[in-house]
Structure formats: C-alpha cells, structure tokens
Design brief:
The complex is a heterodimer of chains A (about 280) and B (about 100).
Chain A (H helix, E strand, L loop, with lengths): L2 H10 L1 E3 L2 E4 L1 H10 L4 H10 L3 E2 L6 H13 L2 E5 L3 H13 L3 E5 L24 H12 L4 E5 L8 H4 L5 E4 L4 H14 L3 E7 L2 E7 L6 H4 L9 H4 L5 H18 L7 E6 L4 E6 L4
Parallel strand pairs in A: 2-3, 4-5, 4-7, 5-6, 7-8
Antiparallel strand pairs in A: 1-2, 8-9, 9-10, 10-11
Helix pairs in contact in A: 2-3, 3-4, 5-6, 5-11
Chain B lengths: L15 E4 L2 H6 L3 E3 L5 H12 L1 H7 L3 E4 L2 E2 L15 E5 L6
Parallel strand pairs in B: 1-5
Antiparallel strand pairs in B: 1-2, 3-4, 3-5
The chains are: A alpha/beta (about 280), B alpha+beta (about 100).
C-alpha cells in the first residue's frame, strides 16, 4: 500500500456512527487512479482503519479484522437453487472476496416460488451465470468464478481448491456425500443445509467428522421433500444459517458441529440434535 | 397395573419416542411412551399406532437413541433402557 493511497483514503473518509468510512464512489476512483482493483482498495482501507461504507453494519459483529478475513477469503457454493441462490446473495453482501459457484442446471418455472435468483425473465437461463451476474450486481468488488456444470466427485477438490469452506446447497444425497468427501480431501469444512416441507437442517462438517454419513444411513437419493415440497421461505431461512456458519468458520466462532440444527416451523422447533458416533 | 403391558412390570419408567416434521404431522402427535425394548419394537409400535400414513416413511428415517444414531449402535437391535429417548426424523435432502 503506497503512502499516497493511505493519505488519500484518510482525506476522503468521513465519520459516520463513530467510524471512519469511505464510500463506493471513492473506492472506485482510487482504484482507477492507482491501477488497483476495488477489492485491493477496500482491503488497504480497512488495514488503515477506514471502513468501506457498504460494510458499516458488519462492524458490530465481525469488526475490521473479521471483514479483512472475509474479503481475503474464498468460499464455494455447490448448488445454486433454493439454498444456493440465497447463500450467494448473503455471502456477496457479507463481503466474501472470492466466490466459487457451481451448478449445471437451468431455471424452470417451478423454481419461481423459492429461488431468489430466478425471475420470470430468467427461465431457461443458466443458474451459474445468473448467480455470477447477481453477485457482481450486489458487490462488484468481488471475484466470482462460476462453473456451469454438475460436479463429479473427482472434480470437487479441483474446483474448490482455493476455498476455505464450501456451502452444500445440493438437492440429492449422493452429490452431497461426494461433496463431503471432496471437502475432506481438501481439508476444509463443508456447511450442510437441507430442506423439506416446513423443516430444515444445518450442520458444519469438518474433515474426519462422520457428518452426512450419520444423517443419510439408508443411502436413499432423496428425502421427504419429494412429498412435502419446498415452500418459499424455507430456503432463505436455512441458507441464512449456512452463511452464518461460513462467517464463523472464517472469522472465528462456535459452529454447529457433531450434530445438526433441526428446525420445523410447523411445530416451532429450533433444536440442536447431537450426533455421536459409537 | 391394569392395562399395562407385561413388559412394563418391574420397569420404573419407559422410553419416550419423539416424532419430528413429516412424521409428527402424519401421526398427529409429537411423542408417546413406549414399552418397546429395542428399536425394532419401536418401529413396530409406530406402525401399529399410526399405520401406513407414518410407517411408509420409516425405512429412511434417522433414528437417534439419546442423541446417538442407531445406525452406529446396533441398528434395529439397539436395546432400550428405562428413560431412554428415541427421536425419529425423516430425511431432508432438498435444496
């Protein structure tokens, strides 16, 4: 970081709510002037104790150190439907510097009830491409790598090689198990989320944890979502919890591990269920 | 002791079986006390109490005995003691 940039950052920053902040327009102008990316300017700014205004409301929870960790992080999202679409939105707004997204699917009409990325004009469009577009529309400083394909078990370690965590937003058991294996091979945690009807579950699986193997013992491909469907708000609810797990993985905190958080809005249950291997 | 199963004689307490999500909805109740002595008997009792509307989900359910996955114990042969808690969850896999 040049001394000149620091001086300019200090000069253009203003005080808001007890913090020195810099606005998006200045981030972009300084990036162009110093031949840097806006992300570089935001990182330099935070290092100098000046908060990009877009992250002002993140400060109370993650602080400057946490925001720097997030901006320097790479997180994967596998599956860009109900859970993945919301997860991508939340991760972009939280300021995760590099997002690696993967889904081979295209939007169909039955996605409209719950998939945040799917608008009527998106029917037939690639979910990966639409997710990339959405991330950059929300936060153009971020780096997005979008893969428009379904990943085989062998591809997982290669595609998510740079990631510190991967969000499991898939919709079938074999793919989820393959993702867990790939993440274990990379030595990184996977944040599992699944929904069916008014129920959902979240669990963070670290390498070596039994994780999904303790949840899906019968080896069936699908769960009760086949009969219960997926109402509109459940994906947002579970994806929000998954993103909170990612933030804890990167910034520090107690994750939902060695058990799963189970919730059922029809019975008002929100409960941690421990899973212990004998 | 009238009306109580013979198996309950001499037992101070009996296991509680808790049903979740789809199972709770289909059963119309959230839990019941059971005199089952192992997981297999719990499943039989569920079938007897609620019939196919619940039992059709049982094959793929996650069964926890005191928070421990029965699949890692002795599966359906997992024995139940007094005051044990059996939780049955349907598998959720949608995204």
């Amino acid at each position: 970081m040049t001394e000149e940039l620091i001086l300019e950052l200090e000069k253009v920053s203003t005080e808001e709510g007890g913090l020195r902040v810099i606005h998006l327009e200045d981030v972009r102008r300084l990036a162009a002037k110093h031949d840097l990316s806006p992300l570089d300017v935001e990182v330099s700014s935070l290092e100098a104790g000046i908060v990009p205004a877009r992250y002002h409301r993140n400060m109370g929870t993650v602080g400057i150190e946490g925001q720097l960790k997030l901006l320097r992080a790479c997180v994967g999202v596998c599956g860009l439907g109900g859970l993945g679409g919301h997860a991508v939105e939340f991760l972009a707004r939280m300021g995760v510097g590099h997002l690696v997204l993967a889904d081979g699917d295209r939007f169909v009409e039955s996605n409209l009830n719950r998939q945040a990325l799917c608008r009527e004009i998106d029917l037939g469009r690639s979910k990966a491409e639409r997710a990339r577009e959405r991330v950059l529309a929300v936060n153009s400083s971020l780096k997005v790598t979008a893969h428009q394909r379904f990943l085989s078990a062998e591809e997982v370690p290669e595609i998510f090689a740079e990631a510190q965590a991967v969000v499991d937003a898939l919709d079938n058991v074999p793919s989820r198990l393959a993702l867990q294996e790939g993440c274990a091979e990379l030595g990184i945690p996977m944040v599992h989320g699944a929904i069916a009807g008014n129920a959902g579950q979240v669990m963070t699986v670290y390498p070596g944890d039994p994780g999904l193997k303790a949840l899906y013992l019968a080896g069936e491909e699908r769960g009760v979502e086949v009969v219960e469907g997926n109402p509109s708000a459940l994906p947002a609810l579970i994806a929000a919890l998954q993103v909170q797990e990612v933030v804890k993985i990167i910034c520090g905190g107690e994750t939902i591990r060695h058990g799963f958080l189970f919730l059922d809005t029809s019975s008002n249950i929100f409960q941690f269920i421990p899973l212990r291997e004998a | 002791m009238k009306g109580m199963s013979l198996k309950l004689l001499g037992r101070k307490d009996v296991p509680t079986v808790k049903l979740f999500a789809t199972l709770r909805k289909a059963a119309g109740e959230k839990d019941f006390r059971s005199d089952a002595r192992n997981v297999a008997e719990v499943l039989e009792e569920v079938e007897k109490r609620y019939g196919d509307k619940v039992s059709r989900y049982l094959r793929n359910c996650i069964i926890l005995v005191n928070g421990q996955n029965a699949g890692y114990l002795k599966g359906k042969r997992t024995k139940l003691e007094e005051e044990d808690e059996v939780s049955i969850f349907p598998p959720l896999a949608g995204g």
